[in-house]
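Hi C.,

You asked whether I'd gotten around to modeling the 406-residue construct. I have! Everything is below, sequence then structure, no commentary in between.
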Amino acid sequence: MYDVTEIRRDFPILSRSVNGKPLVYLDNGASAQKPQVVIDAITKGYAEEYANVHRGLHFLSNLATEKYESTRGVIARFLGVPDEDEIVLNNGTTMGINTVAYGWAMPRMQPGDEIVLSVMEHHANIVPWHFLRERQGVVLKWVDVDSTGYLDPQAVIDAIGPKTKLVAVTHLSNVLGTVVDVKAICDGARAKGVPVLVDGSQAAVHMPVNVKDIGCDFYAITGHKLYGPSGSGAIYIRKERMAEMRPFIGGGDMIREVHKDEVSWNDPPMMFEAGTPGIVQTIGLGVALDYMMGLGMDNIAAHERTLRDYARTRLDGLNWLQVQGTTADKAAIFSFTLDGAAHAHDISTILDKKGVAVRAGQHCTGPLMDHLGLNATCRASFGLYNTVEEVDVLIDALELAHELFS
């Protein structure tokens, strides 16, 4: 049984007040709160077990290495990957996508080659490709969403041409909540011989993910959204793609031997993990994923669907509020504006006075905001510990904002 009251007790920050009101944390799309087991693992990692990993021969180094490396297997299990050597550990999705941009795309793309993107990508899945556009003449091809925020997978497949070398697409929009049929995109792209990178930063938090079933070549996740520490993350890279990549960050761990006149690289995935990593952060990520899997990803998804449906009903009752993204199977993410002159930042400030934490701005999605004709929205994004009662608090706070700006 999924008992959200018990689950909330695992998150110490949820018992605090903000501006004299109980905290209602609805900024999970930006970064999620941490359960006590993760906080304890981080504290113990620094207080009792800290040492550098991989090359030490003493007890603490071996212990840290064992715990650090065990996270690779946890992530593989979380993503449905049989071979943990297809998991590259890093500090988050941005690093994962840049690893693909510099290690795989840059060496093989020529002027005029194309990358297909959706208009609702996060900047982390846009800016690295702009580097290739500016420096190598790569062409970015954009696929729009419809008025509900739906991304037609066939439109993405149809955008693939003879010069397309990569499709890079989000699995779940951080603004619209749209769930993208990435499996259909991968099937269509594979038939045309084009690899697919999936930004899983949002999706992996809200639903079960099996990358082998999806059929993608790259799948990036970030720890701080997965109830784990910031500075942790990973990217799945299909073994065939790994064999095509070159390392782009040089240093310790990614080498086998270094001499004055030559250097030899370590085997993947270590080839792409240069330097001292975020040891304790990565250990904390493993604990966070174990925590989520202990609750059950299907159970989390079902709970969040209940929140989504209730929040949608309540928000639909506010005829002065405009919600962006209305697909039926969207995640529990709601971006909205108020009729009139109220700016998203002003709305967010008023909600904060009621203890409600939401995000306001462009949400690192400039092209999507241009497509929507907006300069900013407020975003309420729900997580595994939120409740229907907190939806009611959000609605009350929005009604207050409406009164103040009417």
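If it helps when you're writing up: The chain has 15 helices and 17 strands.

Thanks,
B.
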